Amino acid sequence: MNIDEKEKMKPIQIKTSNQNLIIKESTYNHVLGVYTFKNRDLFYDFINQNTDLINLLKIIPPIIRDYFPNEELSLEFAPDPEIDMDQLLLYTKTYVTEENNDKLFEKVDSIEKRIKPLLKDTIEDKFLIDLEQR
Fold first, then answer.
1. Three-point CA angle 48, 83, 43, nearest 5°
2. From the centroid of its chain, how far is CA 10?
3. pLDDT tens across 59-99, in order?
4. How far apart are CA 27 and CA 125, in angstroms?
5. pTM of this prediction?
6. Is 123 in contact with 50 (CB distance < 8 Å)?
7. How many Å apart are CA 112 and CA 5, to the nearest integer?
8. Are 48 and 12 in contact (CB under 8 A)?
9. Can you list the positions of beta strands (E) in 16-81?
10. In 1-134, where do the E strands start and end?
11. Is the separation of the CB atoms in 126 and 85 below 8 Å?
């Protein structure tokens, strides 16, 4: 087993104000199996501070797959010091051209509308979906 495989098996320990919570290994492994990560260590830190995100990341892939059935899904922690708010970005990697740009962003808007009811107030401003050029 290489280092990357060992990293995938490591459960995340969540620290909250009144308890420590270990995310179920099956949930954690599910998330690792669905997404690629641009900055995994920062992702772990952000999830530790925003525990509602891990369940969201587990349940939204079927919604995204309705619009982007085969594209790679990538997560990136994105600090934004200008507005003093950190965010988790979910990118759908696809081919964006002038011809399909509007149609692709309409799909993203549709996904966001379907996901919005699933977002808790604690994470609503901390999670964004965008397209990434393949």
1. 25
2. 18
3. 899 999 999 999 999 999 888 777 778 899 999 999 999 99
4. 23
5. 0.75
6. yes
7. 32
8. yes
9. 20-22, 35-37, 72-78
10. 13-15, 20-22, 35-37, 72-78, 87-94, 127-133
11. yes
